[in-house]
Design a protein that fits this description.
Layout lengths: L2 H12 L7 H6 L5 H4 L2 H10 L3 H13 L4 H11 L3 H5 L14 H10 L1 H7 L11 H22 L16 E5 L3 E8 L14 E6 L1 H11 L3 E9 L2 H12 L7 E4 L5 E7 L4 E6 L15 H9 L2 E5 L4 H11 L7 E5 L19 E4 L1 H5 L11 H10 L4 E6 L2 E6 L3 E4 L12 H15 L6 H12 L14 H8 L7
Parallel strand pairs: 1-4, 1-8, 2-6, 4-5, 8-9, 9-10, 10-11
Antiparallel strand pairs: 2-3, 6-7, 11-12, 12-13
Helix pairs in contact: 1-10, 4-5, 6-8, 6-10, 11-17, 17-18, 18-19
Pfam families: PfkB (PF00294)
Protein name: PfkB family carbohydrate kinase
InterPro entries: Carboh/pur_kinase_PfkB_CS, PfkB_dom, Ribo/fructo_kinase, Ribokinase-like
């Protein structure tokens, strides 16, 4: 059996004896494969390096915590999960609920029914069942609802380590891909070739690049993305871990990791041919209702969002940010272009800064009937509700916000532009905004602009993201334009 029926069957059979435990999963004759196949379990196994039996118990405890009070009490005692005992550590008497015999556990649950409900804030619980009713009906119904949650839970419903509050904290929502990089003199035309003697594979994706840029500037970074369960996916995860980026909210799909062919021109600029495998490797709107994701988005200082996901995913992410008591700084990189950006207009008031080229930002206004100036573009986006606009071109930027207007000229650079320049800029911008309680000045914008020039590279984009010292050196170059 598979799906809800398979998981329900396993849970019902494992409630007997001492309940659900890692040791029981290892030794039982029950076919527990449906539990090991749950996406949330596979996520814990792969990202936390946890053995499968322990991952099942950890995942079930997390998911059971989302049940209503009565179902939570019944499931906790039936499976001897220890949720109540862990939640109320000052109540050692709760350990009695997890007796090694299921019959004894049932008697204790019936006897303490009202007490346990009251402990969880339910002062008017339903009438307590008899032990017989509990065994024949109530447990199976509650375990069935747990099975539905297990199967429907996002693969991102995993436990999350506490962020390092001594540093600025950032969550980046975007893609992680493997870039296939070709350095060429010119783009080939039809029936022609553009030979190259430089080819390499390198981690990439706007989400990954921004995460690396933020980490190298000293921030505590969580990347929310999806990769395939293949060698390239493992290489991306290992790379992120080496760079100090948290990866436990990266979904791992049983598919091939997306790749992007990147054609870098020697004098600057690039052309991309992405294969995103979006049918199999992607974020879903459901992911932003996952408890682990909500926990992260509610705790970080800043959230970065790219348009590498579908419009409904971007909308779900922005919508989730509007429900929080503590609002993080929200920066959006509107690239690649969405087919119907108008569906996001209702969320524009949640965006603190849009960061992109003139072309990228112009794509947000498809109904404009004529070409508009850079100034008109910025003002149009501000009118739609965003609080700040940063237009970056050739390592310079124009900034228009509710309290600051500035034009920062480019720093000396060997190239006209480079992939990743805007990720370097927005990461540096976020750092200054968080350091200055969101009240930056032109000096801060100049520093963020210098980060673009510091990111110049003919190789992997992520590897070119600068540290603070590199940006400081660019700012200090004699003769730099101001």
């Amino acid at each position: 059996m598979s799906g809800v029926d398979g998981v329900r069957s396993v849970l019902v059979r494992l409630r007997t004896r001492s309940g659900l435990s890692a040791d029981r999963l290892r030794s039982t004759e029950v076919d527990v494969a449906p539990m090991f196949d749950l996406p949330v379990v596979r996520q814990v196994v792969r990202t936390a390096d946890t053995p499968a039996p322990e991952a099942v118990v950890e995942a079930i405890r997390v998911i059971a915590g989302q049940l209503d009070v009565t179902d939570l009490v019944v499931v906790d005692v039936a499976l001897a999960l220890g949720i109540l005992s862990a939640r109320f550590a000052d109540r050692p008497d709760l350990a009695d609920l997890y007796a090694p015999d299921v019959g004894e556990r049932r008697k204790l649950l019936v006897a303490r029914w009202a007490e346990l409900h009251d402990l969880l804030g339910e002062s008017r619980p339903p009438k307590p069942p008899t032990v017989r009713t509990l065994r024949l009906n109530v447990e199976e119904e509650s375990l069935g609802r747990l099975a539905e949650l297990c199967v429907g839970s996002s693969a991102l419903d995993a436990t999350v380590a506490e962020p390092d509050q001594s540093r600025p904290t950032v969550a980046v929502i975007g893609s992680a891909v493997m870039d296939l990089i070709f350095l060429i003199d010119h783009l080939p035309t039809t029936s022609s070739a553009a030979p190259t003697d430089l080819f390499e594979e390198s981690p990439g994706g706007k989400g990954l690049n921004h995460a690396i840029a933020s980490a190298r500037l000293g921030m505590d970074v969580q990347l929310i993305a999806a990769v395939g369960d293949d060698e390239r996916g493992r290489q991306l995860l290992e790379y992120l871990v080496r760079e100090g980026v948290r990866v436990n909210l990266i979904k791992i799909a049983a598919a091939r990791t997306p790749v992007v062919a990147v054609f870098l021109l020697r004098n600057g600029g690039s052309a991309n041919v992405p294969w995103m495998n979006a049918a199999e490797v992607r974020l879903e709107p459901l992911d932003f209702s996952a408890s682990a994701v909500r926990t992260v988005l509610e705790s970080v200082d800043a959230v970065v969002l790219t348009f590498e996901a579908q419009a409904e995913v971007v909308s779900s992410a922005l919508d989730s940010l509007g429900d929080q008591d503590r609002k993080p700084l929200v920066v959006v990189r509107p690239s690649p272009a969405l087919p119907n950006p108008q569906v996001l207009y209702e969320h524009f008031s949640k965006i603190d800064y849009l960061v992109g080229t003139q072309a990228e930002l112009r794509d947000l206004l498809p109904s404009a009937k004529r070409e508009i100036t850079t100034e008109e573009l910025a003002q149009s986006l501000l009118t739609l509700g965003v609080h700040g606009v940063c237009i970056t071109e050739e390592f310079g930027c124009l900034v228009r916000s509710e309290y600051l207007q500035a034009d920062i000229a480019q720093f000396p650079a060997a190239m006209r532009d480079t992939p990743g320049a805007r990720e370097a800029f927005s990461a540096a911008l976020i750092l200054k905004l968080l350091e200055k309680n969101r009240k930056i000045d032109e000096k801060d914008l100049k520093w963020a602009t210098a980060a673009m020039a510091a990111s110049q590279s003919y190789g992997g984009v992520a590897d070119s993201m600068p540290a603070q010292a590199q940006v400081d050196r660019v700012v200090g170059i004699p003769g730099a334009k101001t």
